[in-house]
Amino acid sequence: MFTGLNETLYGNGDICGTKYSVTCLGAVDPEQPSPCRRTKTVTVTVTDSCTVEADGEPCSTFVLSAEAFAQIARPRAGLVKVAYTL
């Protein structure tokens, strides 16, 4: 499974191939129920950077592949709060 990173974390690309453990912490909107799955953590490999989301907004920290996101949260959630470690 893979991820893109925002420009701050991606830097000059030396981080490509690095593995991160990404954990779903909950909904971005505290009024919404938690979208996290029971398996809240997934390991992903950095493959690319991301500057702008499809909707034109700046990239969040991680842009997980659909498969990776579905492992930790309900896909329709779109955005979730995460914690990450190397």
TrEMBL record:
One of its GO terms (cellular component) is apoplast. SUPFAM superfamilies: Barwin-like endoglucanases. It comes from the Eukaryota. GO terms for biological process: systemic acquired resistance. SMART domains: DPBB_1. It holds the Pfam family DPBB_1. Residues 1-86 form the Expansin-like EG45 domain. This is Expansin-like EG45 domain-containing protein. It comes from Linum tenue. InterPro entries: EGC1/2, Expansin/allergen_DPBB_dom, RlpA-like_DPBB, RlpA-like_sf.
